[in-house]
Amino acid sequence: MTKKRRRLPALIKDMGSCLFKKPFTQEYPFVSVQAPEGYRGRQTFDPEKCISCGLCERDCPAKAIELVEVSGKRMPYFYLDRCIFCYQCAEGCPRNAIQLSTNFEMSTTEKDELLVKAEEFISKQNISSDEGQ
Amino acid sequence: MEKFETAVDVLKNNLADAIVELKVPRPRKAYILLKSERHRDAVSLLLKHVEESMLSTISGVDLGTEIELNYHMVCGGTVTLKNRVPREKPVTKTITDILPGANLYEREVFDLLGVVFEGHPNLERLLLPDGWPKGNYPLRRDWTPPLIQENDSGSEEDSQNNSEEDDVGSLVSVVVGPQHPVLHEPERFNFTVDGETVVDVKPRLGYVHRGIEKAAERMMYFQDVFLVERICGICNAAHTTVFCQAVEDIGNIETPPRALYLRTIVHELNRVHSHLLLLGVGGHLLGFEALFQHVWRDREPVMDIIEQITGNRLMSGFNTIGGVRRDINPNTVEKALKTVKAVRKRAVFYKNVFEEDATLRLRTEGVGVLSKEVALKLCVVGPVLRGSGVASDVRKDDPYAAYAEIPFNVPCYDECDTWARLMVRVDEVVESLNILDYAFNNLPGGRLRVRVQRKIPEGEAVSRVEAPRGELIHYVKSDGTAYPYRVKVRAPTLANLLAFPDAIRGGYIADIPSVMGSLDPCFSCTDRMAFVDTANGQKWRWSLDDVNSHKNRRVLL
Ligand code: SF4
Ligand code: SF4
Predict the structure, then answer these.
(1) Which atom, in ligand 2's list, is nearest to the CA of A95?
(2) CATH architecture under which domain A36-132 falls
């Protein structure tokens, strides 16, 4: 069955060549890494488009969305600690108010930071529209 | 396919008086309602007349006044034999004497639905903790979780069980786990060893039991897709494919051809990276760290492709009921084809390594032998079955998704040892890459998904796929609402686990990791527990007859 004659293990050449290559691993976080287009990262939300229909809240399989009254309109809060990044919310939203981003960097030492409030997007929008003017 | 027709004919001709209702709604799927307590006759008939027929699982369904036991027999397709027992007095006869592979499935039903199987050699808890209060059967429809909170006495009894096993003579029991550096997932093994030789093993699982089947009843169908995806990270595409197929079956939903091809692609990418992972782990368990590092490096491009196609490295979130959720663009196809080519080259190289490396062969050849007969008796699945000389593959026997149109081979080895099981996987990587090549090049156009109502009409369906670890089966029953009435999952590791004691018995302690690894266990999938008892000082090397004799079975199973 097994051949009696001793030979060099087949992997040895590969192992040798690796000695002269740079490491395969990436030097994250010192070198930033770009997730590919279409990667399901942190949600972005457009308060202007939202019609408070509540579909996102009802459909979310992880119960990670809660509609909260923000400046006179019910809008989603995202609990990222529960979110499974399935994007059912984005898929179901009738106005495309929820969009995906490729931002995957969410590690934090504060659990509270994982609550994404609709207000965040309101203020951001104001800033960007101010800049535009 | 012929096998399936023979199976149905055999039952029709020989058991006409016992059949209440016979339905064949789809090719290769039969549902047969039997008169009470005639299931044993039906199972023995199938075993006798249909070659290589096995039991997939038993799913119990609480129908209100009765509990329905569905014996899903694999004979070309799936023949589901239904036996109903009254809920008030749920007692039926075991089939473990005809088919030892039914052991764990009967225990599972006993544990979760409270059906007593008369004559079962070892009817004990399988999944729930030992301290679980009596009379609580989670999968009965009227059971709700809060009931158990007060008197859950935890794992005290559990540890007592452990200490019972005193060392007898030269036998020593060694407990490994639940947390142990050698294990990747929490589970506990109680090995009985005599010097360097393993005399017996008693695994205890259930440490990652999450009650997903129950949870699935409380979520809508489309949400359940994300839930079943999380049964297992590494074969997530298999779980979603099989679940979506079952629901599509019930709702008579036609999935567009492009979606079927895309499903196949993600499913196969899953298999490639899962097998490469295992081959690397195999090297690691044998102490061949360089192999481990190299294989895992070459697995990475596959992960990148998955990330690009599905939007995540692991949790693909790709399948949905009625199709798939996103399209694939031509650039990605081009890149994927390049990767496929590169990885194929590496896979061929690794095949050479596995064939030629003398040390590797010494450590795996003749180790962990599982003969063809035992494999069939214990109803093992997937690469373990194919490593024991049975060329059975759901993709060929009962084609789903796009497999009917794609040419591929089913690798099969007759050596029955650890080496054979590893080789099956090396060959399958190459086959999968060929399938991918074909699928990318022949991707049909058209729609990605069809619109599906939230409510699914009344009905039931069994669906099977070939997950990387073997046959994966889901049984879904709908009562016409948006929420499933019952979802039953049987992951491949549960089927293969029964074979572990047989494979390792008589081997060396040093071979434990590699034999275990060659079964490619995935405990979060399985999350069930098992078996056996010994400690009577007996040494082994049982013949098949010994295994089957009633006296020994109590000890063995
Ligand atoms: S991505 Fe999924 S889990 Fe997260 S908020 Fe949206 S629907 Fe919920
Ligand atoms: S589904 Fe869209 S429109 Fe409806 S509440 Fe959610 S974000 Fe707003």
Answers:
(1) 3
(2) 2-Layer Sandwich (3.30)
